[in-house]
Specification:
Order of helices and strands: EHEEHEHEHEEHEHHEHEEHEHEE
Radius of gyration: 23 Å
Largest sheet: 7 strands, mixed
Bound molecules: S-adenosylmethionine
Distance between the termini: 47 Å
CATH class of the largest domain: Alpha Beta
Length: about 375
């Protein structure tokens, strides 16, 4: 018998929807339309595990439970009480409620949270015929979104955001989220040609590049909330991990170079690469950008340089952009994809970008500047 389809909602950073959509297409989920910050579509329950493990640029994977209009707390309460939570949530579940109210008559987030929690507890107590729910079991996070007086209720299957791959154990100055790093690489023209991140910090961009080049699923090393649920076997995690292992290809990959001026950054980046299983594919180097001496043809550079706002001030950032511009000068066979919040970046880099795309890095508005190679040597 064909498995029943459920509504899945995949969230992602704003500006990244197109990339997440292409990932879904490549994974065999058709061409669902993107909405701001996410994509909704129908899939099987068993796809939940696969989506969590394989998506590189998504933030979380949700099961959408209901959508209904509500302008009052009474309407909110009765709408939530009508949802068959008992199909998903056991009697001992540790129920967390989180969400947002945007442009709606109901605007109080914490009051909405309490009402939704009360409605869920009432529904489950009634269905399980108990007067008290101990909440000692697995975590079940219910997310609500009230937008223009329409309430959406979703079950978070991922738990912690999917950027938490499991390899980045320590923090560095202004690290980029793993999901955004992946999006930058997927937006670039990188396809198993030589690669460089000259401001690699804790190694996020080169590690994500190595995971992409080897077709290694980013979620193979982490935990998910759904794995602790009573129906965990429905998500077919073992089959997904088998598929993920089968897809890994590590042969004949051109080098991935990663450098940074700071030796502590490179030490950390090496530890992270080790944990992610790709350390043999990345050539790390302590090196200021102006001393980089790479002769590779058809290099793709994807990088997140200093923005001139924290440890490295505006003058340092300007010098970084000028130095990077200098090493890329006259390399018509190289491409560069650089994310920064500096609106005058192109002037300092010394070239006008072929394209720009607005993206948010930790809620800071940035642009990704695209400089495509003009000649392709045996690519
Ligand atoms: C925004 S951080 C990069 C963070 C990195 N993407 C990560 O996820 O950890 C910028 C990096 O540029 C490095 N940096 C600053 N000036 C540099 C220079 N002149 N040459 C090379 N690296 C430099 C800093 O040490 C820092 O690690």
């Amino acid at each position: 018998m064909a498995e029943e389809k459920i509504k899945i909602s995949v969230s992602c950073a704003s500006g990244v929807e197109k990339v997440t959509k292409s990932e879904l297409k490549r994974l065999g989920y058709g061409d669902p339309p993107a909405i701001l910050g996410g994509i909704n579509f129908f899939a099987r329950v068993s796809d939940v595990g696969r989506l969590n493990v394989f998506l590189r640029t998504a933030d979380r994977v949700y099961i959408e439970l209901a959508e209904f209009p509500a302008k009052t707390f009474d309407e909110l309460y009765s709408g939530v009480t009508a949802i068959p939570f008992e199909n998903y949530i056991p009697k001992d579940a540790n129920i967390i409620v989180d969400g947002k109210c945007v442009k709606s008559t109901i605007y109080a987030v914490s009051a909405s949270q309490s009402i939704i929690k009360k409605a869920i507890v009432t529904r489950l107590s009634d269905k399980y015929k108990v007067s008290f729910l101990p909440e000692t079991g697995a975590r079940y996070e219910i997310d609500f979104y009230i937008y223009h007086d329409v309430v959406t209720i979703k079950l978070n299957t991922s738990g912690a955001g999917l950027h938490k791959r499991g390899y980045r154990k320590k923090v560095w100055i202004a690290p980029i989220k793993e999901t955004l790093a992946s999006a930058l690489i997927l937006l670039s023209d990188y396809y198993k040609n030589p690669f460089l991140d000259p401001f690699c910090g804790s190694g996020t961009i080169p590690i994500e590049a190595a995971l992409i080049a080897t077709d290694t699923a980013p979620g193979m090393m982490r935990d998910f909330d759904f794995l602790h649920w009573k129906n965990a076997k429905d998500y077919k995690f073992d089959t997904v991990i088998e598929e993920a292992k089968d897809r890994i290809k590590r042969n004949n990959l051109p080098p991935i170079f990663a450098s940074d001026i700071d030796n502590k950054a490179i030490k950390l980046a090496k530890e992270h690469a080790e944990l992610s299983g790709v350390s043999d594919l990345i050539k790390f180097n302590v090196c200021p950008v102006d001393k980089i001496d790479i002769k590779e043809k058809n290099l793709t550079i994807v990088t997140n340089p200093p923005y001139g706002e924290r440890v490295y001030d505006a003058a340092d950032a300007k010098k970084c952009y000028e130095d990077l511009g200098f090493i890329c000068k006259n390399r018509e066979d190289w491409s560069e994809f650089i994310i920064t919040s500096d609106k005058n970046f192109e002037k300092k880099f010394g070239k006008k970008a072929d394209r720009k795309r607005k993206l948010y890095n930790s809620e800071k508005e940035c642009d990704l500047y695209y400089f495509y190679r003009k000649i392709k040597e045996n690519l």
